[in-house]
Specification:
alpha+beta; 6-stranded mixed beta sheet; 3-stranded antiparallel beta sheet; 9 strands
Amino acid sequence: MNNIPTTALGLAEQGLPVLPLRADKRPLGNCRACDDLACGGRPNMAAPGPCACPWPCHGWAAATTNTAVLASPQWTAAWRRARTIGYHPGGAGVTIVDLDNPAAVDWARTNLPPTRTVATTRGEHWIYSGTMRSVNAVRASVDIKSTMSYARWLGPGTGTLTDLPDTVRALAEKTPSSGRPTPRAVTVPAPAGGGECRHRSPAYLERGIAMAEQRITEAASAVHATVYRTFLAVLSAHGRCGCLTEAHIARLFTAAQTKGESPRHCTDAWSNAQTALGM
C-alpha cells in the first residue's frame, strides 16, 4: 500500500470507518490522557461516548469516517507510523468470517453461502452484509469479526456481497472448538465502592468491559500477564465507585477461561489486582 493516509481518507469518504494499525497489525495503544480508557472511549458509529481525545488510540472504537478527524495533526502523525489500515466491520454494516488457513476456507466453501471474499496472507475473509457480535474461535481457525472488533483492509475483494446468513449467526452460539474446557461460572464479590464515580454515561462502563474482553480475547501470547493487567485496569477505572457488578466480572472471567485460563487463576489474578490497588 503506497500511500496509507490517502487510501484511508478515500475509504472513509466511501463510508468505511478506518483506523491506523501498527506493524504487528494491532491498533495504536492509548495515549497518556486515556490510559486504561479513563476517558471513556472515542465516539463512533456503534458505540457513542463522551471522549474528546484527538488521538486514534482506542482500538476498534477509534475507527471513524470523519475526514476532518482523519486529516487532523494527531491522526496525520499516527498514519505516518501506521503500516496498514484497519476498519470496524460493524461500523461498516458488515460481518467478516475470518478463515485462517486453507482447511478453514474449504470448510466455508462447503458450509457457507457464497459472498464477497478477500484473500489474506493465510486464508480468506468472507464478508456478509449485516452485523452481529464478534466471536473468536467459533471453530478451528475461524473467527467472526463484526461489532466491537477490527480487521485489516486488504482490498475490496471479489464476488457479490450477500446478506448475513443464519448459518453464520449460529456459529456464535456454539462452543468454540479449541479443545479448551467450557468456561465455568465463578462468583467473585463486586467491590463495595463508595468513591466518586467518574462515569458520565452507562456506555462508559459497558465500553470499558467490552474492550477489556477484547483485550483478553485477542491476546496472542502471555495470556496470564494479559489477564492480570486487564483485571488491574478494570479495577483501577471502575473498582472504587460501586458501578462494577458481579455480572461484569463474570464476563471478564469467561473471556479469560475461553483463552485457557483456569477458574482458580482467574480468581487469583483478580485478588492480586485488588491487592496491588489497595482494595
